[in-house]
Amino acid sequence: MASRHEEKYIISYREYAILKSRIQGVLTPDIHGDHGTYLITSLYYDDHLDNALAEKQDGLPEHSKFRIRTYGCSDTAIHLERKDKHGILTHKLSAKLTKEQVYGMLHGKFDLDGFSGSAYELVAQMESQQLIPTVAVRYLRDAYVYPGTDLRLTFDTELEAIEPDPQALFSAAFSGVPVLDRNSIIMEIKYGSHLPAFLRKLTDVSCQQLSVSKYALCRERII
């Protein structure tokens, strides 16, 4: 995937309702989920020194995170991802996994013979860094796109931190610890090289852009 800009804000439910009304007829719901709404669960990996967490907490402009992600707790589309951050620019390398491969990656035990292509590259990096699962992050995403462009506008609610059990990827029965109050919603604006002025105005909010990491928020909640 090519690099793209990623802006994050924490907004109130009132601002969320205003923005949803404002984008009606301009942006369209993502084709995935129920009218653009779907559950995301991500199992994040870090090393024994928690370097990925420390890099985020220290505000380093460049850092990377590894995660396994599912949608709607389904095992039909499991993605292993490395997300690289360079300021507000992000780049994601992704590969598909099977459920069996996920369970085979527990506690830093990686059998490279079972992987190929991008998955092999990612798992080899995880093995070399001796990464282990540290937290599962779950939230409900309300996603919108602007047809004909790469713009994505997402609103994430009900953020939870769950103990790093890979079964949480496949079962909504795993409950976690609420991370944000019900009035706080994470809004993300994602786009390529340029965000048209009318779309900037459409998505304008009164709050400042933040360096928000769901991974860091959830790790801090359960440590």
List keywords for this structure.
single chain, 223 residues, alpha+beta, mRNA Triphosphatase Cet1, Chain A, 8-stranded antiparallel barrel, 6 helices, 10 strands, 22% helix, 38% strand
Please give a structural write-up.
Helices cover 22% and strands 38% of the residues. The protein starts with a strand and ends with a helix. It has helices spanning 13-23, 51-57, 99-103, 117-128, 197-202, 214-222; strands at 4-12, 28-29, 37-46, 62-71, 78-86, 89-97, 132-145, 152-162, 177-178, 184-191. The protein contains 6 helices and 10 strands. By secondary structure, it is α+β, with helices and mostly antiparallel strands. The longest helix has 12 residues, at 117-128. An 8-stranded antiparallel β-barrel has the order 1-6-5-4-3-7-8-10, surrounded by 4 helices. It has a single domain, classed as VTC, catalytic tunnel domain (mRNA Triphosphatase Cet1, Chain A, Alpha-Beta Barrel). The model has no long low-confidence stretch (mean pLDDT 91).
Secondary structure topology:
Elements: E1 4-12, H1 13-23, E2 28-29, E3 37-46, H2 51-57, E4 62-71, E5 78-86, E6 89-97, H3 99-103, H4 117-128, E7 132-145, E8 152-162, E9 177-178, E10 184-191, H5 197-202, H6 214-222
Antiparallel strand pairs: 1-6, 1-10, 2-7, 3-4, 3-7, 4-5, 5-6, 7-8, 8-9, 8-10
Q: CATH topology, which one?
A: mRNA Triphosphatase Cet1, Chain A
Beta-strand percentage? 35-45%
Provide a count of the helices: 6
Order of helices and strands: EHEEHEEEHHEEEEHH
Radius of gyration, taken over Cα atoms and rounded to an integer in Å:
17 Å
Spatial shape: globular
CATH homology superfamily name: VTC, catalytic tunnel domain
> Tell me, what is the CATH class?
Alpha Beta
Assign the CATH architecture. Alpha-Beta Barrel
Average residue pLDDT: 91
Distance between the termini: 33 Å
Q: Which structural class do you get from the secondary structure elements?
A: alpha+beta
User: How many structurally independent domains?
Assistant: 1
Largest sheet, strands/sense/barrel: 8 strands, antiparallel, barrel
